[in-house]
Amino acid sequence: MRWRESEGVGWLEAELPRTRVVFSTRSAGSVKADPRPLAAALGIDAGRILSGRQVHGAELAFHEKAGPGQLEVDGHVIREPGPIALVYTADCLPVALAGPEGAAMLHCGWRGMAAGIVARGAEAVAATHAVIGPGIGPCCYEVGEDVSSSFARLGGGVASGRMLDLPKVARRLLREAGVTDVESADLCTSCEEELFFSHRRDGGAGRQAGLAWIETEVD
User: Fold this and answer.
1) Would you call 158 helix, strand, or coil by DSSP?
2) Average pLDDT, 10 consecutive residues per value, the chain (219 residues)
3) Is 163 domain-assigned?
4) Which of 125, 129, 173, 207 is placed for a possible disulfide with 88 were both Cys, Cβ 3.0 to 4.6 Å?
């Protein structure tokens, strides 16, 4: 992953097979309120962006082309160049996947991961590669026993006392799903106040975004 900036907007960028991945920062403003500043900085058409009403579940939307829609989904699967998959985050993890069947962008909070969204997204694209974007870290994510026990089967290290390590949960779920190449930003949205919105830290409606799209192949 590398940092990029244009027109005063900064973002973290990664490359997966055939797929470009972007994780925005608060420098773009709240992407949920207005995606246009980020789209302009990235040089993409905001009309290509596909998002949904996120409900912390494991449902996926399968998109053949860009177009309007507000499905209740927490993941988006794309097969060809054109549509841009987007999820909103403010502590949950944005997780991008790529494989021979396409690309996916997932909104991964603890509920969605416990419900199986990582495995479903990986299966949908036959994922071989993944990248985990910024989200709340184990330094700041205090949870109850009911939450941490949801991931007890993943083994030691995913929780320490009341602190849950969401990125480690995502890594282990990806490994279970057969994804062998995984990169993680390892940036805590709650700690990095200048960079990210954080619902746990601030409340409020500000949201950054994770985006993924399949690049046009050039012969």
Assistant:
1) coil
2) 96 97 98 96 95 95 70 94 96 98 98 98 98 98 96 94 97 97 97 97 94 80
3) no
4) 207
100 domain residue, yes or no? yes
In the prediction, which pLDDT does 219 show?
42
Alpha-carbon separation of residue 35 from 61, 133, 210 (angstroms): 20, 18, 12
166/158 Cα distance (integer angstroms): 7
Query: So what's the pLDDT on residue 217?
Result: 67
**Calpha distance 102→120 (Å, rounded):** 13
Token duo for residue 146: 């009911």
- Does some domain include residue 206? yes
**For the stretch 7-41, what's the b/e string if a residue is b when 16 or more beta carbons lie within 10 angstroms of its beta carbon?**
eebbbbebebebbbbbbbbbbbbbbbeebebbbeb
Angle between helices 117-125 and 166-176 (to 10 degrees): 40
Q: Which domain holds residue 74?
A: 2-139+173-214
What CATH number is attached to the domain comprising 127? 3.60.140.10
194 occurs within a structural domain:
yes
- What's the domain count of the chain? 1
